[in-house]
Amino acid sequence: MSEHPFYEETLSSKSIFSGRMIDLQVDTVRLPDGRTATREIVRHPGAVAVLALLDGGRRMLVVEQYRKPLEKTQVEIPAGKLEAGEDPLAAAARELEEETGYRAKSLELLHTFSTSPGFADEIIHLYIADQLEEGTVRLDDEEFLTSEAISLDEAWEYIRDGRIGDAKTLLAVYAWQQRLAAEARLP
Amino acid sequence: MSEHPFYEETLSSKSIFSGRMIDLQVDTVRLPDGRTATREIVRHPGAVAVLALLDGGRRMLVVEQYRKPLEKTQVEIPAGKLEAGEDPLAAAARELEEETGYRAKSLELLHTFSTSPGFADEIIHLYIADQLEEGTVRLDDEEFLTSEAISLDEAWEYIRDGRIGDAKTLLAVYAWQQRLAAEARLP
């Protein structure tokens, strides 16, 4: 595979909105066949999320909060957007402690992925932390949430009943299950 | 857990943009503590994606396309947005055949998840299909992509080298691996 098959050259870019969390632009691009098209693009600063494990990997920290775009409460792994110029690793440690009160002795990058590559540039850096110590919950202004630690069985139950229903948390649960299965196979 | 802890009542909603793929609105909400805040919300029609398996589950169909928001080519499972009023199951069958030329004898819903619950209402319906027959590739206008079938080892290699790097495809690879592992444990 070549590096950029079907490359779309930007012919012009129009800023539509500049907000607190996201910006929106509409680009006019040249398609591979020479025609032009528009692309609606949401710009996002990027985010971090943490698969934070307690009890030797038997429980995972989650937070429950109201998600206005979905008009419902959701249970997700701790996460938050990057602040300007912030290192993702530092952001992950910060968000974990702010939201759950746990401090990670070490964080390991598990995956970096885009959430909606068709219309947004948001990238999530997903970390795993399995050695935690007690710190201090400090929620952001305008942030309302509670945290709890759930077992893998509870996580699958939450997925079935819809309390867990976002991509990063689903991904974290699968990665957690795979990790436990790999550990179980060790002598 | 109650149904809507931290509910945010909408006080007003302002439409910022109405596009071909997404709309943008800014809502003013009442926070649980009585203060007000704004919420930037991208409206999306929803999407479907398919974990389509060939060769008795040993290979997965992927498509390669240029993703303008990321300014790079990505390898993803076949996917596309819902058309107005379209049933997700029918959309999944349509997108799979349009993009890869394979027709699914049956599709099973694996997960329904949100991609970016902090700023977008996009929901992806992820299906699994493991009995495929040859159909006809019919790309949408303005759609440029190629498809291939890769093994699980190749999928993990693509994840490591960044060719695969979006949430739905990562999730599909984990689900595929878990399925193969469960089958291997069967007598």
Form type of chain A: globular
Q: What is the number of helices of chain A? A: 3
Radius of gyration of chain A: 19 Å
CATH 4th-level superfamily of the largest domain in chain A: Nucleoside Triphosphate Pyrophosphohydrolase
Helix content of chain A: 10-25%
Mean pLDDT of chain A comes to 94
CATH topology annotation of the largest domain in chain A: Nucleoside Triphosphate Pyrophosphohydrolase
Main β-sheet of chain A, in a few words? 7 strands, mixed
Low-confidence stretches of chain A: none
Q: How much beta of chain A, percentage-wise?
A: 35-45%
Describe the protein in words.
2 copies of one chain form a homodimer. Chain A is α+β, with helices and mostly antiparallel strands. Chain A has 2 domains: 9-43; 47-185, Alpha-Beta Complex (Nucleoside Triphosphate Pyrophosphohydrolase), CATH 3.90.79. The first copy, chain A, has 3 helices and 12 strands, in the order E-E-E-E-E-E-E-H-E-E-E-E-E-H-H. The first copy, chain A, has helices at 88-100, 152-161, 167-185, and strands at 9-18, 23-30, 36-43, 47-54, 59-67, 72-76, 79-81, 102-104, 108-114, 123-129, 132-134, 145-151. The longest helix of chain A is centred in the last third of the chain and has 19 residues, at 167-185. Chains A and B meet through strand 2, strand 3, strand 5, strand 6 and strand 9 of A and strand 2, strand 3, strand 5, strand 6 and strand 9 of B.
